[in-house]
Amino acid sequence: MKTYLFPGTFDPFTRGHRDIARRASGLCDRLIIAVMENSAKKPVFTPDEREQMVRLSISEYDNIEVIKSSGLLVDIYKDMGCCAVVRGIRSESDFRYEAEMTLANRLLYPSYETVLIPCRDDMSLISSSIVKEVGHYGGDISKMVPAEIVEMVKNKLTERKL
Ligand code: PNS
Predict the structure, then answer these.
(1) Which ligand 1 atom lies nearest to the CA of residue 72?
(2) At what angle do helices 128-136 and 150-159 cross, to 10 degrees?
């Protein structure tokens, strides 16, 4: 059983994330999406909300599971018997960040492996930050996040302004 792990903050989950998950799920037997914490970020959505958004967005895929963790990535990697971490890349700066993260994780766990998936052209400008910025000012985010979570994301971003 080949298990890949797709970790991220997913604050919120975007169409770009879902496309990477869909493509990665075709490369392995089981894909685990891990909703995690990044110490450099202060998420707008709670861990439960982020997990729920991922679940709602990927329900049509039989071999994708969702978990939530506030621990180290390598611990999940080991515990879940993963053979690679999947990350989507949009740009050269994403690539550098991923290369550094891979090296750091490999120091913690030498057999750690990463599969980098370049994002689709038409999704290269979508990021969770852009969704939050556009949503904050009441712009249309329906092309940026999966249809299943548009209302949830809109409501949260609007209620923060009140
Ligand atoms: O979506 P993001 O913010 O780019 O995802 C980054 C994430 C959550 C995968 C990364 O910060 C992470 O692995 N966090 C868990 C803690 C950890 O293991 N950090 C060491 C990474 S070198």
Answers:
(1) 18
(2) 60
How far, in Å, is the centroid of ligand 1 from the Cα of 162?
Answer: 31
Distances, alpha carbon 94 to alpha carbons 25, 61, 98, 147, in Å = 21, 26, 6, 26
CA distance 73 to 134: 30
Active site (catalytic) residues: 17, 41, 90, 128
Q: Is 72 in the pocket of ligand 1 (CB under 6 A)?
A: yes
Q: Mutate which of 50, 68, 72, 73 to test ligand 1's pocket (most atoms within 8 Å of Cβ)? A: 73
Q: Domains (ranges, CATH) in the chain? A: 3-161 (3.40.50.620)
Q: Give the pLDDT confidence of 104-151 residue by residue, as tens digits.
A: 999 999 999 999 999 999 999 999 999 999 999 999 999 999 999 999
Q: Specify the pLDDT at position 159.
A: 84
Percent helix, strand, coil in the chain, to 5, is 45, 15, 40
Tell me: the pLDDT tens digits for 30-67? 999 999 999 999 999 999 999 999 999 999 999 999 99
Global pTM value: 0.97
